[in-house]
Every structure is written in C-alpha cells, then in structure tokens.
C-alpha cells in the first residue's frame, strides 16, 4: 500500500452528526430461493436486475425483469459455477455487458446484457477468491475499468471492445487493509469500499499503474452494502446496515436514515443497488439488496418514492449510466504504448504482463518457473506435469472421485481399518439441506452410507476411545445446524451409527464454524477443539460415563489468529501442537495441552514467498513413520492448490500441488477446494504409499467421459439408443429413433421408427433381430457392430466422440454420423442406479452434431448438419424394472440446459423412482420430482392393445415445473417381446431458468 491517510474530519462528521429527518422503505422479498451477494441494474427501456448465485449446484448469475409492483420475473439463469461477481458494464464495443467470474475456474466470462449470449473475449483467468467489483468510466478518456476486490487486494482491469468481442487486461494489483465486500463509485471518481465490522475506506480511481492512496473515511461506520444515488446536483452515498440505510452527501455528511421494514429478522447480505429510472410499479426508482430473513433468502426490493425527498434529496429519474463514446475525451492508451499501457507524454507505463519501452513485449511472473513458456501477458503454457499461474504447481491426477452426495460438501476424513487397510473408508460431511450429514465411501469413491446430522462441517477420526466397558472409534464434527458438537461411532466395518451422548451442547449464542481433535501424549486424555467465525476457540475434554454415554467438559478458551475468520485445524499429537488456518491471513501454531500458552506463532502468511493465497481452508498432518518429521498440507481455496510445509518447526515451505483433469478416467480437476485429509498408510494396490482426499466444489470436465470399450459385452442387456432430430436441406423435419440391443449368440435386436414432425399421417416403424458379422469390438477397442441391414460403429476409440448409425428398412434408410459436441449426462450423478433387481449403468450424450443422408421410398435427402442433432443414450445391466418406465430427454434451444429425467412406479417401494439429472455448462445437478399423468390423454395401440401416456406434468422440488406433451399419439415401436413408444414432445413451463423446449419421450407400458 502506498499510503494510508486517516480522514479525521470525515470520520468525526459521520460519528457526531445526528439526522433531523428520517424516512421509511417497506421491503418486499421479490426473488427468493437462492444465495445472492451482489446485485446490479442494467438500465434501458426494460430494466433488468443481475444477481450472482453463490450456490454449489446452481451457481452463476440470474437476471430479472419487473413483472408487477411486488415481484421480479426471472428471465435467465446462467449456471457458470458458484459466483460472487456478476457486474454490468456499459457501452463496451457498442453494447452493454455482464462480467461474471465463477469461483470453480476463475475464468472471466462476458455476456451480452441484452441477449444473454456469451461474448467472445480473451479468456482472462484471474485466480483468487473475489467478493465484489465496481466499474469506473474515466471522464477524461472514456475508458472503462473494473476494480475487483479480493482478500486484502484489489485488481484493476481495463475492459474494451476488440474486433467482434471484448478484451480484458490487468492494469495493476494493489494491496488494501481488508477484504472489500461492498463498493460504490461516485462522480468525482472516488471508490468507497468496506466490509462487515471493518472501516469505510476510499481511494481515487486513476488511469495509472501506481497504487492509489487509500484513505480511512471512518473506523466506526457499519457497512453491509454501499450504493450511490446521483441527483440532479450532487451524489449521495447510501450505506446499508442492520435494518437501515444511512444517506450521506458528497462531503460525507449524513442527511438522514431510512428505516427498512417488511421482512422479519432482516439480515442484509450485501449487493445494495439503485435503479433511478422508472420501472413497472416503481415510478421513482427502487433499491434492492441480497437478504436473509426469517423465512426466505434472495433479493429484497423497495420503492424510493417516499424515501429520499424527506431527506432533502432531489429525485433524478432521468439518470442513466453513460454508454456512448466520449467525443471530447482523449485516451492515454495510445499506439505509442502499443495500446498496452498509459502514455504520459514522455514514457509508457505498461499494464501487468507487458514490458518494453513501447509495452509491445509480453512477460510472465517468475519466467514461468522454468517449467513453461510465456505465451501472453502473464499467461504461461506449462510443461507436462506442471500447472498454476506461473507453472510452479505440481500437477497431480486423481485416481477416483466420490459419487455425488448432496449440494454443499465440505471436509473429508479417512478411517483406517484396523486389520484390513483395503477396507478403509472415506468419511465426508455435507452441510446443505440436500444430503445433510455424514457420508461413507469406499476407497474407489462409491457411496456406501449416509447418516443424517445437523450440518456437520469439519470431520476427524478418534481411534480407540473407551466408552463404558468397550473401545470404539468415533467420527467428530462441529454441527452448525443445531450449534453442537456431534459424534458418531464407527463399527469394525466402517459403518456409522449414533451413540449415546453424541450431541453435546455449546454455550448459548456460540455458533461453531470449525473443529478438530487432539489426544494428549502426556495424559492420554482426548480433547475436542471447536471455533466460531470470530476465532474464539473452546477446548473440551471428552469422556464417557460408566454406562457408555459421552460427555464433555470445557477446559480452555483462547483467541486464535489475528482477528480474521478461522475454520480448518489439525493437531500434531506427537509434538503437542494444534495448527489453525486463518482464512484471510495464514497458518498459526498453538500449544494443544489445556494448560498451554494462548499465544500463537504464525509461520505462513498469505502473500509470502511461498505464494500462499486466501482463503486458507483445510489442514492435514502426515507424520513420518517415526520421529518428528512429516508434512503439513494446507488447502488454498482461492487458487484451488495445496501448500506443503515441514511438520517440524520452523515449518519451512516445501512446494505446492494441485489436482488436474484425469480425462482417461473422466475425473475433473479440483475447484474452489475446501477440506483436505491425508494418510501415509499403505492401503491397497491403488494407494501403496498413502492417500490424499480433498473437497471438490463442482464437476467441470470438458469433453466426453471416456468409458471402457468392452462395456457393452459385460451385461445381458446392452443398449445403444439414438434419437435423431433431423432437418433436411429441403427443410423437412423428421424424428428418427434407432435402438440397437446386443444379444447373446452374436445377435442384435434393432428397433427403428421414423416420424414426419409436420405431417400427422406419415409414420413408419420396424423391429427385428439380425445376425452380426464378425466381432463387435475391433482390436484397437473401437465399436463395430455390423449386419446386413444395420450398422453401429465408431471412428473414435472412446466409442463416444464420433459414431455411425445406419440402417435400411422396407420403408426408409439412413446413414448418419453423430459427433459429440457436449458433455455426458451421468444419470443419477454417477451413471449407476437401481433398475429392477440390480443396478444399471446409463448415460446420455445430448446435442450431438448430426450429418448424413436419409431416404424415404424413392426420395433421398441430405441432412442439414447446422439444423440437426441427436441424443445418444447408452445403457447396460442385467435386469429390467418390474413395471413400465418413462424417460424424458429434455432440451431448450439456445440454452446449455439439458436434462435426462426418469420415472417409474414399482410395486417395490425402493423402486419408486423419480429423479432427473441436469447438465449445464457448469456441471451436473440432481433434481427430484413428482409426476402427474393425464390419463384422459392416453392412447391405446390398435396393434398391441397397449396403453401409452402422452401428456405429463412434472413438478420439481425447487418449485420448477414442466408440461410435456407428445406431438401425436401413434409412435409405438412394436415387437412381440418388447413394447415401447418413442415420441417427440413439446415442453412448456419453468425449469432451470428456461420456459420452452422439446423432449424425446420413451415410454414402456406396465401392462398390455
């Protein structure tokens, strides 16, 4: 930081001034059911509100329009990944934009604010944990800049139009004293920022590569949100906190306070924004912010009609942000500096990543650590085995990934089996409502058990603890749901169960946030550490009564860290230490005995030479087999990397690694990481030297999942199902279904149907069993199923990337090439679910590009590849459900939302299945639903006498719904052994931000 100036006059004014006039705003929870932090308005004839979505499953951002005087209508939902940053930027390249930075990959994404379409950009990646952003447009040059606030730092970007897209360049990064959680820009180019329980700061926005002078405006003002109102004569700074908004003039003198009412137990989560122009139901403008209340979370809205005038603030409904180029402005970003720096008239001051007298050369941090090449401004292309911003991270590929379990996982632990290490278990915590509690997995990541608990967070293992007359292993966590310490027992096979005294209360108003355990080598006693967000640590002794009931006794309290939020901790029982992670600051060591010193030692600091980055999250200890050596591993959430330090003081830094894609196994890299655990025990052939398990926030693997080529021969029922939606170059539209089922004895069942979508009288179908020619798998692993009349083959070894589907019937023929362009939908999140008596494996590959030819009678057609697509579904298993099923493949044109939705109603309660698997650009999400069948819309086949449903209402557990209706009632694929209808259907409703689309429906009736 260049300087830190205390503005005593401003501070005194804020503290001492008493407002003589107050006003009131009645709030309405206008959009609820998601986690927002930041909001921003897009001005225009139809104003829109942009709000980030910070949830794990639906993260990204949402856009809303005004529908009436009390609610907002969601117009789009971009699932780009858990995000805090979604900020409007005006007038870039002739259009308004939305800038979004998802936490999972930190890739800056640009969207057209009017259309919602993604805009081509230079794919700038900015690793870090970002909280808020403010946009400043220079009144001198007309250039636009984004100030991005993170952990005690601010990054300044230039954003400008370039050819058909947008370019974002880093200008500079400078330190600040806090993590800015809210910010606002006023007309004299000052940027104010603050955070909860922190001072109000400001700095002057300038076109320079020199760090600005940071001013302390006040150390006593409370801030949960900041916004600026631009009246006709001056600006006013609005400061939201508690249940009020304080209004200050441009000299930072308080004009009054606006009381907020209408929402019980209101908590302002941030994102205060103002729309000054009129809108539906709000002729004088509105304020909005992200909130949490007694009943809802989301966005609250309130009218400014009677709020500002009583405070002497003149309304300005004509204000709109500047969007046009500044004709009288003169930019200092000139050709003399290659447009990559500022020109002060004598020399160039280059942006980050550029160098040379004219800023024409690119440079990279630490010369890419000699493990890569500099290919752009601070952009390294790393050699194999290395990754990270400057190629200093060791790239580690994962061996396995746990099956999907709940919405918001956090922390893992490894339980080692006492006699059979290959039967050891991974125990995880889920703190979201979906999947809430503990999960137990085997060493290949298969979910074995779920045990409900009240939002457990960190989890640790306690071995050989005496309970009455027996010895047990325990899993321990702090439970946020009921503010308790929660313990469960682990039996000899790794199964969790409740134990008497397993819920231990904490002091009133104490909200736990992190935890770990420690067994004293001096006394043999077991201790439980727990902390809250304020870093108040409580240390309890864990004991048990004679009858086997657990109990705890508080033996110590101390304050950890330097005042920042803490969470992760781990004990070194051999050395008598407990290590804690202070999220914004670094790693501390404390004595772990109850009579130990309460003064800690910080041995790693965020921003030090190791490159440790906030948030510091999980910690784990890997001791040597004997002696004081070993390693401390720490997860850095902001950059999803893991830092290694020596176990023994002074805990020297060793190196950094991160988890990268294992595309051969279909496992993605780790993103937005949280907890970590590791052991050095030999467990099995996969892990002969130990195991590391870490939290991953989202599935992001690009491309298709590669599956073993011989899977189709491994089960009695092995099906390849293609739903081709074809448009010919003559603009004729057909729905072609081709189902290939491999049978024993070198036979294949083929069922096909062809429907003219726009002609209710034209429909053909066939079903037959054919003999195969030769092997169905070539020596190189490629699929090659061929008969006299049909072909199913692949030109890609993964048997996914490129497929050929071809056939000839008495009525029609086809030869189609299907090219994967999207990512696999693993049904049920893992691709495996119960299907009759046994499991089935099923996945879908939607939106495949399709080309080729189609012949009907004597007419031949060429397929328009730009207007055609295919769904490719793969299923294999050894049984069928005992009653009929319905499957919906749902797609929304122009959207990345695609869903594979299953429903069947079995006589066996465990087989009553209703679930959907949604694939977006962000990842997979499971949704539950109920189904209403419109019996009066059913159709009975005159050939088979089977009854088929043709219209359904699907209602999802998040409030979404879909009406699905077949376009016609005669799409049966008839054979003596199996009856199924495969239909093309319309889709209307509300689903993942989409309203209309189409579906492929497969329906097997339960009775004939």
From TrEMBL:
Any one GO MF annotation of this record: inositol hexakisphosphate 3-phosphatase activity
PROSITE patterns: BP_PHYTASE, EGF_1, EGF_2, EGF_3
Domain EGF-like: 360-392
BPP domain sequence ranges: 11-311, 386-720
The keyword Disulfide bond is annotated on this UniProt entry: yes
Record has Signal as a keyword: yes
Keywords, comma-separated and alphabetical: Disulfide bond, EGF-like domain, Hydrolase, Signal
Enzyme Commission number: 3.1.3.41, 3.1.3.8
Residues annotated as signal peptide: 1-20
Domain of life: Eukaryota
InterPro entries named among the record's database cross-references: 6-blade_b-propeller_TolB-like (IPR011042), AttH-like_dom_sf (IPR023374), AttH_dom (IPR010791), B-propeller_Phytase (IPR003431), EGF (IPR000742), Fungal_Dehydratase/Hydratase (IPR053112), Growth_fac_rcpt_cys_sf (IPR009030)
Intrachain disulfide bonds: 364-374, 382-391
PANTHER family recorded: ATTH DOMAIN-CONTAINING PROTEIN-RELATED, TERPENE CYCLASE ASQC
Protein name from the UniProt record: Thermostable phytase
Species of provenance: Stemphylium lycopersici (Tomato gray leaf spot disease fungus)
Organism classification: Eukaryota, Fungi, Dikarya, Ascomycota, Pezizomycotina
């Amino acid at each position: 930081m260049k300087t830190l100036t205390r503005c005593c006059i401003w501070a005194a004014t804020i503290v001492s001034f008493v407002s003589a006039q107050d006003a009131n705003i009645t709030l309405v929870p206008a959009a609820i059911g998601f986690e927002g932090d930041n909001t921003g308005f897009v001005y225009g004839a139809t104003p829109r509100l942009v709000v980030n979505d910070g949830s794990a499953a639906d993260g990204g951002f949402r856009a809303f329009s005004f529908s009436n005087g009390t609610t907002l209508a969601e117009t789009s939902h971009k699932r780009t990944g858990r995000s805090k940053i979604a900020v409007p930027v005006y007038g870039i390249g002739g259009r308004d934009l939305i800038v979004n930075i998802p936490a999972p990959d930190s890739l800056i994404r640009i969207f057209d604010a009017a259309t919602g379409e993604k805009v081509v950009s230079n794919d700038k990646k900015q690793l870090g944990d970002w909280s808020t952003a403010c946009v400043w447009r220079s009144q001198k040059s007309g250039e636009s800049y984004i100030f991005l606030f993170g952990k005690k730092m601010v990054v300044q970007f230039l954003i400008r139009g370039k050819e058909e897209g947008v370019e974002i360049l880093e200008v500079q990064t400078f330190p600040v004293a806090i993590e800015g959680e809210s910010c606002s820009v006023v007309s004299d180019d000052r940027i104010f920022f603050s955070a909860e329980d922190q001072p109000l700061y400001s700095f002057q926005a300038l076109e320079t590569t020199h760090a600005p002078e940071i001013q302390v405006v006040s150390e006593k003002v409370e801030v949960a949100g900041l916004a600026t109102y631009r009246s006709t004569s001056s600006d006013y700074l609005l400061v939201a906190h508690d249940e009020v908004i304080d209004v200050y003039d441009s000299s930072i003198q308080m004009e009054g306070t606006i009381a907020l009412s209408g929402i019980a137990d209101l908590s302002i989560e941030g994102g205060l924004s103002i729309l000054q122009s009129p809108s539906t139901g709000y002729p004088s403008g509105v304020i909005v912010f992200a909130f949490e209340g007694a009943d809802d979370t989301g966005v609250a809205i309130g009218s400014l009609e009677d709020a500002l005038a009583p405070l002497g603030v003149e309304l300005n409904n004509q204000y709109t942000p500047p969007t046009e180029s500044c004709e009288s402005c003169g930019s200092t970003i000139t050709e003399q500096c290659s447009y990559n720096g500022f020109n002060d008239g004598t020399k160039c001051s280059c942006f980050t990543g550029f160098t040379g007298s004219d800023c024409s050369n690119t440079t990279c941090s630490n010369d890419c650590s000699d493990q890569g090449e500099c290919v752009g401004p601070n952009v390294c292309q790393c050699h194999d085995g290395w990754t990270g911003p400057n190629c200093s991270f060791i790239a580690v590929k994962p061996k396995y990934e746990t099956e999907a379990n709940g919405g918001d996982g956090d922390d893992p632990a490894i339980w080692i089996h006492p006699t059979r290490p290959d039967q050891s278990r991974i125990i995880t915590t889920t703190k979201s409502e979906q999947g809430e509690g503990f999960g137990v997995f085997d060493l290949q990541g298969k979910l074995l058990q779920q045990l409900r608990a009240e939002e457990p967070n960190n989890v640790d293992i306690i071995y050989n603890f005496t309970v009455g007359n027996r010895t047990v292993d325990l899993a321990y966590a702090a439970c946020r749901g009921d503010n308790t310490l929660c313990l469960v027992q682990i039996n000899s096979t790794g199964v969790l169960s409740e134990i008497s005294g397993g819920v231990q209360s904490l002091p009133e108003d104490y909200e736990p946030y992190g935890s770990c355990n420690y067994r004293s080598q001096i006394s043999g006693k077991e201790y439980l550490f727990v902390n809250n967000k304020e870093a108040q640590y409580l240390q309890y002794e864990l004991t048990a009564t004679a009858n086997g009931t657990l109990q705890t006794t508080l033996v110590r309290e101390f304050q950890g860290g330097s005042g920042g939020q803490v969470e992760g901790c781990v004990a070194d029982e051999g050395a008598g230490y407990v290590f804690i992670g202070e999220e914004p600051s670094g790693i501390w060591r404390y004595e772990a005995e109850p009579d130990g010193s309460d003064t800690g030692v910080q041995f790693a600091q965020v921003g030090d030479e190791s490159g440790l980055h906030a948030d510091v999250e999980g910690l784990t200890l890997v001791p040597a087999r004997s002696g004081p050596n070993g390693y401390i591993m720490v997860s850095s959430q902001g950059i999803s990397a893991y830092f290694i330090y020596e176990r023994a003081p002074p805990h020297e830094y060793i190196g950094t690694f991160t988890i990268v894609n294992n595309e051969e196994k279909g496992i993605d890299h780790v993103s937005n990481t949280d907890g970590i655990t590791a052991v050095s025990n030999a467990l099995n052939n996969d892990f002969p030297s130990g195991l590391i398990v870490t939290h991953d926030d989202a599935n992001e693997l690009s491309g298709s999942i590669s599956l073993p080529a011989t899977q189709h021969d491994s089960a009695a029922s092995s099906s390849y199902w293609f739903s081709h939606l074809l448009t010919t170059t003559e603009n004729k539209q057909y729905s072609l279904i081709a189902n290939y089922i491999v049978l024993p004895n070198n036979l294949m069942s083929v069922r096909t149907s062809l429907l003219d979508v726009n002609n209710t009288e034209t429909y053909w179908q066939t079903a037959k069993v054919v003999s195969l020619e030769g092997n169905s798998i070539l020596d190189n692993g490629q699929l090659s199923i061929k008969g006299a009349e049909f072909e199913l083959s692949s030109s890609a070894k993964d048997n996914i990337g490129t497929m050929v589907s071809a056939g000839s019937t008495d009525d029609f023929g086809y030869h189609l090439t299907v090219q994967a362009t999207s990512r696999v939908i693993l049904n049920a999140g893992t691709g495996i679910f119960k299907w009759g008596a046994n499991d089935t494996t099923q996945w879908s590959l939607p939106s495949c590009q399709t080309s080729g030819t189609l012949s009907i009678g004597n007419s031949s057609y060429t397929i328009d590849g730009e207007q055609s697509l295919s769904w490719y579904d793969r299923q294999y298993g050894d049984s069928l459900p005992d009653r009929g099923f319905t499957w919906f493949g749902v797609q929304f044109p122009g959207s990345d939302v695609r869903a594979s939705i299953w429903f069947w109603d079995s006589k066996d309660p465990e087989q009553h299945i209703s679930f959907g698997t949604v694939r977006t650009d962000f990842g997979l999400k499971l949704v539950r639903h109920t189904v209403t069948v419109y019996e009066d819309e059913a159709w009975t086949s005159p050939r088979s006498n089977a009854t088929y449903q043709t219209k359904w209402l699907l209602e999802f557990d998040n409030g979404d719904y879909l009406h699905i209706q077949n376009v016609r009632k005669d799409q049966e694929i008839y054979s003596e052994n199996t009856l199924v209808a495969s239909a093309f259907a319309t889709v209307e409703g509300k689903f993942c931000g989409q309203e209309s689309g189409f579906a492929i429906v497969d329906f097997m009736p339960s009775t004939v």
